[in-house]
Amino acid sequence: MTDLIACLSSGKGTWGHVNRLISDGEWGKIFLIGHLVWGLAFLGIYQQEHSRVQASRWIDDNVWEGAVISAEYWDDALPLAIGENQYTTVYLEVFAPDSIEKWQRMGEGLEMTDYVAMSSNRAWGSVGKLPDLFPESVKYYSDWFANREDLVYQRQVYPNISWPMAGKCLYLGPTDYPGKEINWLEIKSCDRVGLYIRDDMAEEAFTVYDHPQVFIWRNRR
Questions:
Q1: Are residues 194 and 169 in the same domain?
Q2: In this structure, are 107 and 192 located in the same domain?
Q3: Helices (H) and strands (E) in the chain, counts
Q4: Which of these, 5, 43, 173, lies nearest to 18 by C-alpha position?
Q5: N or C, where is the chain less crowded by C-beta within 10 Å?
Q6: Of the residues 15, 30, 47, which one is the last residue of a structural domain?
Q7: pLDDT of residue 174
Q8: 102 plus 24 within the same structural domain
Q9: Which DSSP helix (H) or strand (E) runs through 104?
Q10: DSSP character string of 192-213
């Protein structure tokens, strides 16, 4: 137990203690510590509101009432019914096979929208990664994720451990965005300082339902 407490502390000796366990061949303790750290990190997800709830509150505070916001079929529309303002939802048939007719409907839907919302990776993590079957869809998602200028909101909730001494947020694990190179390590400023374990490539139970990533773009047509 002393080893566990030492390794989970936020003091300077944390990594030195881990190195000592490795040097001494204490693999059983290292295995146990790793599982305990992962469990604590996963609990960190639930120390804040669900990402779709946070996004809905942002919309209610920052988007004018009556605005038209897109949603993707087979995924949750935003905002959730938790605010006072009323919005119009336009559903985009992103899972339909690529065809002239599909992209005519997509174009008509996008022409109506003020904001493009993606409330999880359900679509861009599937059809957005299949160039042989969905070449136009791959381009569609790659273009949106390359559009940083009109990206007005994004929220990622990952397993995390608070680590105030770090001063910034340390993100470990592969990213998984359409048209983007995989990034395994990122350090940046954020509100909740600590260690974040990216699970972008996990199954839908986590990335669509439990703690989905949310992206919202201003659609300037």
A1: yes
A2: yes
A3: 7, 9
A4: 5
A5: N
A6: 47
A7: 92
A8: no
A9: helix 100-112
A10: S-EEEE--TTS-HIIIIIIS--
What average pLDDT does range 63-69 have in this prediction? Answer: 97
Helix (H) or strand (E) holding 118: strand 115-118
- For helices 27-43 and 13-23, the axis angle rounded to 10 degrees is 140
**CA 221, CA 123: separation in Å to the nearest integer?**
21
Same domain, 134 and 34: no
Same domain, 157 and 177: yes
Span 124-172, pLDDT tens digits? 999 999 999 999 999 999 999 999 999 999 999 999 988 888 788 899 8
Q: Are residues 121 and 185 in the same domain?
A: yes
pTM for the model stands at: 0.84
Structure tokens, 87: 């919005």
Residue with tokens 């087979």: 74
Compute the residue count for the chain. Answer: 221
Q: Are residues 60 and 118 in the same domain?
A: yes
In the numeric block, which tokens belong to residue 31? 């295995």
Domain, as residue range, for 76: 51-218
Q: How many CB atoms lie within 10 A of CB 13?
A: 11
Number of domains the chain contains: 2
Which tens digits make up the pLDDT trace of 7-26? 444 444 454 555 565 565 55
